[in-house]
Amino acid sequence: MSPASIATAANSNNHTLLINVGLQPWRALRRVRMIAVLALPLLVFVAACTGTNEDELVVFAAASLTDVLTELGEQYGAETRTSVIFSFGGSQLLSRQIVDGAPADLMISAGRQPIDLLEREQVVEAGPFDLVSNELVVVTRSGFSDPPGEVADLASESIKNLSIPDPNLAPAGAYARESLTSLGLWEALADKIVPTGDVRASLTNAERGNTDAAIVYRTDAVSGSDLQILDIIPPDSHSPIVYPVVVTTRTKRPEAARRFAEFLVGEAAGKIFARYGFTPLFNKQVGQ
Questions:
Q1: Rounded-to-integer distance, Cα 43 and Cα 282, Å
Q2: Backbone phi, psi, residue 157, to 5°
Q3: From CA 121, how far away is CA 4, in angstroms rounded?
Q4: What is the pLDDT of residue 169?
């Protein structure tokens, strides 16, 4: 695998640092200064160097949470003077990095499978706790002349290619594969599928016209530009989409990690998640 792209950015008050990890680059985040770093091993080095104090936390999180967690991290930093360092990418890739020793205090996955890996490898300190849910949609460019009217139309000649996150790297891709398989379309679409490292890369493919369509989360679709959002994937064609959070055994600051997890399942955070299109699933307090 070619070296991953790593970018870091700090906001104006230095409370939130973002480390974006992916197999393909995506557009710069709002109001942050991006500094490109090329070698994947530096992710662990940077996180280790910056995450040694009680007022700093390293959080690995699904790429589809980039926008909402950026805002939540800034708010939490302003309220508590705790710097939150985010590493965003495909959940399966991030969980493997944690198993291999990456010093993440918490992980927020876009599905259960990456968390199952952490539990099998006994690197979960607390959790999992389900934070929010999401939905799958199909997107095409706004000017696309023949958008699919139903999911079976993805197999038509008007759709030359379809971008989805790699099912082996990102839960969004696993949900998409599960849906297409249950609908009897997976084999028919096999030659059209263009896999990406995470859901944001698939969204970018559709935005730029690199592919005719993409399957992404609704929350990512509404953040895109010049797109048609097609609500044609039956919700019962795949497993429920959930975002679990865990505190990992890699943490050297378990109480601080639990406090941030408590913040994420709180009412204030729930309103912000909802504003970005997620459905809060808070049904228990961290540590109970």
A1: 31
A2: -70, -20
A3: 24
A4: 87
- In this prediction, residues 98-125 reach a mean pLDDT of 96
Residue 197: helix, strand or coil by DSSP? coil
pLDDT at 53 over 90: no
Strand 56-62, strand 16-22: pairing:
unpaired
Q: Which two tokens stand for residue 139?
A: 């997107």
Closest listed residue to residue 232, CA positions, set 164, 145, 147, 161: 147
Q: How many CA atoms lie within 13 A of 247 on its CB side?
A: 19
Beta bridge partners of 122: none
Please state, in angstroms and rounded to a whole number, the distance separating the CA atoms of residues 242 and 219. 13
Give the number of other Cβ atoms within 10 Å of residue 28's Cβ: 12
Q: Which token pair is 192?
A: 């059209």
pLDDT band at 54 (very low <50, low <70, confident <90, very high): low
Closest among 288, 287, 279, 265 to 108, alpha carbons compared: 265
Choose among 89, 102, 88: nearest CA to 173.
Answer: 89
- Residue 64 tokens, joined: 């589809």
Instruction: Assess whether pLDDT exceeds 50 at residue 44.
Output: no
- Give me the residues paired with residue 248 across strands: 124
